[in-house]
Amino acid sequence: MSPRPVVLVTGAARRLGREIALHLGRQGWDVAVHHHRSGADATVTDLRALGAGAAAFAADLGDEAACRALAPAVVAHFGRLDAVVNNASLFEPDHAADFSYAAMERHWRANTAPAIVLAQALHDHLAARGAAEPGCVVNLLDQKLWNPNPDCISYTLSKAALECATTLLAQALAPRVRVCGVAPGLTLGSAQIDDARLAQLQSQALLGYGARPADVAQAVHFLLTARASTGTTVLVDAGQHLQSHERDFGYL
Question: What is the pLDDT of residue 244?
Fold first, then answer.
């Protein structure tokens, strides 16, 4: 069994998930690096260079059988699992006018259901292990839940369901598992938002600057170690949720 606590970070091969994984590796965690298609060799190599135990685990979280097999695979490799960070996410823009069952199902399967399954798996593992300390699940949400606009309806509904699941799981899995959320604001660019536009939008935040990936990773680490916190969400958005926008950032 690993002598260090082990955290599973989903979608950890790149972008925000990679930043979270590397930050936790620096803070004394061994990291199970989940990926789907991206390939996680670079993240695993960088974690090992930091002195952390690390291994890659491929799974399509939208496939229930593959999702249910993920936590046992992590336990088989490390001998333990202490926390899960549900970072992997699907973002496909749609609107009320072109909403479909298929789009909603894709987002539900990627953004909501896996977090519930992995929380359940962590709870069952800790019970079987007889762990003395509670485990923790941190779900990555979105500041737009506190500042809604009608864009990206399937994505937003899936994250709203995940926010509600954070509360329900905190109740259902206590005292063995704490369940919390981190809601980032606009943190990274995308196909819709290049670096120049990102800087411009972030400069309009209440604090005059935007959240960085390191800020989100720091909040995740705080909640993983905040033994008296459960069923709560930390917003990491430089105040963006306090500013009303009629459209999603990609359309402003």
Answer: 87
Q: Quick one: tokens of 240?
A: 């963006």
Task: Tell me what percent of the residues of the chain surpass a pLDDT of 90.
Answer: 90
Residue owning tokens 């069923």: 231
Q: Is 179 exposed, middle or buried (0-12, 13-18, 19+ CB in 10 A)?
A: buried
Hey, what CATH class is 6-251 in?
Answer: alpha beta
What are the extents of the domains in the chain? 6-251
If you write DSSP's letter for every residue of 22-38 in order, what string do you get?
A: HHHHHTT-EEEEEESSS
Neighbours of 162 (CB within 10 A): 25
Residue 14, CA atoms < 13 Å, CB-side half-sphere: 8
Query: What would the pLDDT profile of 190-227 be if each residue is shown by its tens digit?
Result: 878 889 999 999 999 999 999 999 999 999 999 999 99
